[in-house]
Design brief:
Blueprint lengths: L1 H21 L2 H22 L5 H24 L2 H22 L11 H23 L5 H26 L3 E3 L3 E5 H21 L6 H29 L14 H22 L4
Antiparallel strand pairs: 1-2
Helix pairs in contact: 1-6, 2-3, 2-5, 3-5, 4-5, 4-8, 4-9, 5-6, 5-9, 6-7, 6-8, 6-9, 7-8, 8-9
């Protein structure tokens, strides 16, 4: 499994980096929109929509939502900031809910509610990355930095959890995740915060940027955990089989769906948006 993960990563990472750094924002938004639509197809399955027609309808709604937001962003980029602020509030609520989650007593959303949640998660995620990418000359570098931050946090959680993991983070949702893994993720995020302070000092004070990256990474953990809950409720291990060793597209971007709006909101607050 580890070898498959590494081989898939070695193939995907250069493609992702090239797309982020060298595509104009219009092309990036279109290409990444296709990624989000594929993830939306997987989301329809996790939402346990009754049949394929329902999944197609959900995909059409997602396509319409992305198109509508794209038109709004063309008129005023502030729409992207508003969506990210709303999504940040949403993820804070999700964090509280997951921290208190009890399988026998907590609310379990039905298929329609899970489909609506899919729009709430995927549309601001796409919007945030598009706004960051188009924010200035270093916009693509900021998108790449965000992705590296999440990759480092995910890798830190994975390897730290495997080596030192003892205390389960949320055994009723994802038995494989440990608190020690989260600590590894946060250490990696802190290092990335120091790197951001070094390469882009105008973003903010070094200590503040370290804290900012730690918060983004912490929220990303709950993005991963939320998708794990959806998979558990749907009775599946992975969202799909697209990526050998990694599962489906959602399995690759689940952390990023939560992190991207928070990252954009934080940049706006810090005054680091170009």
């Amino acid at each position: 499994m580890l070898l498959q993960r590494l081989v898939t990563a070695l193939v995907l990472i250069p493609l992702v980096i090239g797309g982020v750094l060298y595509l104009p924002t219009a092309s990036f938004s279109l290409l990444f929109g296709l990624v989000v639509l594929y993830a939306g197809w997987e989301w329809g399955s996790l939402a346990t929509l009754p049949d394929q027609n329902a999944r197609v309808l959900f995909l059409l709604l997602l396509t319409t939502a992305l198109g509508g937001v794209s038109l709004l962003l063309d008129q005023d980029v502030e729409w992207g900031l508003r969506l990210s602020a709303a999504a940040t509030a949403w993820w804070l609520l999700v964090m509280v809910w997951l921290a208190r989650y009890q399988p026998d007593h907590s609310y379990r959303p039905g298929p329609l509610m899970k489909a609506l949640i899919g729009l709430i998660v995927l549309v601001p995620f796409w919007s945030a990355l598009v706004v960051i990418h188009g924010s200035g000359e270093d916009g693509p570098m900021l998108v790449l930095f965000l992705m590296i931050l999440i990759w480092v946090a995910d890798s830190g959680a994975y390897f730290t959890g495997r080596r030192w993991g003892r205390v389960k983070l949320a055994p009723r949702i994802s038995p494989g995740k440990t608190r020690e893994g989260v600590y590894g993720a946060l250490v990696g995020a802190a290092i990335c915060g120091g790197l951001l302070a070094w390469i882009r000092p105008e973003t903010g004070q070094p200590l503040l940027l370290v804290l900012f990256c730690v918060v983004v990474a912490l929220v990303s953990v709950f993005g991963d955990l939320f998708e794990s809950l959806l998979k558990r409720l749907a009775g599946v291990k992975d969202s799909g089989r697209l990526l050998p060793g990694h599962g489906g597209m959602l399995d690759r971007i689940d952390s990023l769906t939560a992190a991207a709006p928070v990252f954009l909101s934080g940049l706006t607050f810090l005054g680091g948006e170009a």
